[in-house]
Amino acid sequence: MSGDAPSPSQADRTRPVSELVAGAVCLAASVAFLVAARALPEGHSSGDVGPGALPLQIGIFALVCSLAYLGLTLRGSFAAVPGQFAQSHRAGLALGIFVLALVAVPWLGLALAIALASALTTLLFDGPHRLLRAVATGVGIWLIAVLLFQMLLGLPMP
Amino acid sequence: MNARPSETTGPRRIAAFVRNAVAAVCLAAGAMALPQIAAAEFPEKPVTLVVWSGAGGTLDTYGRKLAELLEREGGWTVKVDNRPGGSGAVGLSQIVTQPADGYSILVLTGTLTFGIAQGLIPFKLEDLRLLRAMQSEPSSLAVAKDSPLQSVDDFVAYMKENPNGLKVGGHSSGGFHQYMLYQMMQQGGFESGWIPHDASGKVTLALLGDHIDAAMMTPSTGLSQVQSGDFRLLGVTTAERSPFLPDAPTFKEQGYDIEGAIWRGIAVKAGTPDDVVASIQTAIDKVTASEEWKTFQQEQFQDSPNWGEAEFTERTRKDLEAQAEFLKSAGFLQ
Amino acid sequence: MDGIIQSLGVIFSLSGIAVLLIGALLGMVIGALPGLGPSIGLSLLIPFTYTMSPELSMLLMISLYTSAEYGGSISAILLSTPGTAAAAATAIDGYAMAQKGKANEAISISLTASTVGGVLGGLALLLLAMPLASLALQFGPAGYFAVGLFGLTSVAALAGGSLVKGLLGAGLGLALATVGIDPIAGTPRFTFGQFELYEGVPFLAALIGLFAVSEAISLAEKQARKKPLGKTRVGHVFLSLGLWKETWRSMLSGSVIGTLLGILPGVGGNIACWVARDYARARDKNPEEYGKGAANGIAAPEASNNATVGGALVPLLALGVPGSPTTAIMMGALIMHGLHPGPQLFTEEPTLVYAILFGVIIASLVQYLVGSLFLPIMARTVLLPEGVIAAGIMAFAVLGAFAIRNLMFDVWLTLGFGLLGYVMKKLSFPVAPVILAMVLGYLIESNYRTALVSSRGDYMIFLTDPISVLFLILSLISIMVPIRRAWRARRAASHSAA
Fold first, then answer.
1. Span of the secretion signal (chain C) (predicted)?
2. What is the ipTM of this complex?
3. What is the nearest CA distance from B50 to chain A, expressed in angstroms?
4. Which residues of C touch B82 (CB under 8 A)?
5. Contact A45 B332 (CB under 8 A)
6. What is the value of pTM for the model shown?
7. Which residue among C181, C183, C453 places its CB closest to the CB of B193?
8. Structural domains in chain B?
9. A20-76: pLDDT as tens digits
């Protein structure tokens, strides 16, 4: 588990905060999973190790890995990437547009909602003819959703 | 509700034309007379058959045949909608969230009662009107060709002498086949473990490969082996010998009071009006009377229980009680 | 003999060729769309096949099955959005290669390897159906457990930069695989009362989310792909002699692995592609190239993937037992025609059986033909503006996620996995181990516990079952080989340093 560390001289001296946070999240998640696994009932067939056996082992495995990950991070095995999440609001925006569209599905229907969301998503990108591109994408997606998925494949879309 | 009985007597095409014309006028005027007209002859619009399993399985095959015949024999327009998931709970919730107007019909199986008893299906029998059980398949005790066991008595005697001496398995954990074994254990007075398999085809493979010594299985899942003699059916859980398996003895004729079958049938949401249900039943009668349905049942090796609503509901209620008992004693429920 | 001649007559009739072509075209499109795999494609076809003869309906289904099994790789290579579970292995090297501006090569390799795999798997089915079927019968629960474990050992090879991150990903996948109703005891686990989760976390939701959605939102962030693809030449898809020489071994080994694993019900293509990739990597002189666009990293999984089609039909034809959801649908279609698959079908309906046997081989060739005409057009999607690509991936991901079970729940789940995949990529966590562990987790656990229930708690069952022993040893070997290699490399490095 230690053979993958790049040579320390390359490692950035600044603490990679995102890696530390990720390590902490992994640790918390494995502890939570472990606790939840212990709450599972016993098996009732003779010879069965029970529903909780594998989850317990996975929890322990993940716990060990999380600790190793945190340890490696603290030892400086992972270099901090400056500005790693600086542009993340754009990714969040793309996801957010679709989340909003899905919330609006009861009113708009699935096909129209994702067509609108796709059109909006293209506006996040630079390039020539942005409005035209957005409209073309929206119409195209709507046509594909309705013609291919709804009519041809018979998907019962809300 | 019988506002326009005259419509049902006239020739269908004229009636349909009149209905459409009236409906169009009503819509245009925004009149509220539509529900009355709709009740005149069910169905006024396409009916959805919600199949609670994925496409391609036995239940789906049945649902699609039913849809085809409802269109041909009943003159309906039918859409099949597969809603797999949650041991049927997804399909069931699809039905109960729709209006109780008969336009959403659930195509379901006898695993309904196991799901409810085990607490996996968060609904009650009372949420549905069980309209008709149209297919059923029994379970059977099967062994491989080279097994020394020749009858249910042999099996029971062996298990009594060697508790848990044979590996017995079948499809699913805490389901119909294990329930049949449990009844055998009760009546024969022996102990047996249960090796669950997550697909019925895997039971066939396990028995062929000698990974289990005996299986509780639907005869048709090992059909090719039963016909070729690779599997021997020691007992079948039908009241009388099945016409498909005239050589396979029943449990009953060997002195064990074990009878059970996994049914497939249709249900609608509770509260669906009686006249709509009557229309559905009439259409189903037309389907079951057709030659094509009979051939289909024959080819699929399906028994036709054809239980009406009263019998179907009564049997299901009893099944639910008995299965809850079984699940408790087998350790599935506390 | 009459059966053979008549079946060839059916295949090469006008309608036979027509259904093969239609099946291949439909299959490729359906496979390329995320979430819509061969089983959804076949279930959509079922109503249309009622009116056909059994032979034609089987040809149509086989052709669609084969091409859909392949089609998943097209979007995997071009857009890093594997359309099917099995194409996730292809996505790793295929997309990396396409990013280097060699999308055309990547596609030629995948199409050729798929065809080779399909033909060899079909030949195995034609010539060895009975021995392969009796081999399948040797696998009991202990054997399946060991096969699953063996598959899991290839996680290390997928870890890429950091082993600990790969292992954490595998842990996540295993944990996700335990969600749902317990296979033995019947109790729901980690479902939080959501009955949508009773059958487990839908695997396709994880696949579409981790690969497709995360890729789309990363595109939105960067506004550009790693390298501009504008100059990607999209030409013919015939494999160059050099690439043939480079990849023929992994095509062959991939085909053998795919055929063998394909005969095992519930194993099939989902794990064959990973095992094949791992095997090719272990034997390769440059294992470090894998993940960065290695030709063999595409050829091996692709060949194995399509070889599973022939393998999966073995239990259906030889034993009358469907080996996969897809073959279960085909069995349903045969039953609809009043035919019951099994060995007796060889004597009762020889024309049909030979139409299926030859159909598998010929469908692969038709797939090549359709692919070589159709792929250059499909490959042009990469030339679309970035924004349109990102929006399109998102839209298809949502539609595909919905198509899994017609549930909005799965769409939400997919978006959640998309966010997770995005963060994982940011922190250079590989997503492939999550997918692999999720596929194998259920197989491993259910068979481990079934084995113990059938031995009444005696662990010796894993050491007395010869198949289990064989695969446990193989697992050990596949763990030891990279460790030994790393140890040697380190020793060599310290020698040269000293």
1. none
2. 0.88
3. 11
4. 43, 406
5. no
6. 0.84
7. C453
8. 1-41 (no CATH), 46-137+263-327 (3.40.190.150), 140-259 (3.40.190.10)
9. 999 999 999 999 999 999 988 888 888 888 888 999 999 999 999 999 999 998 888
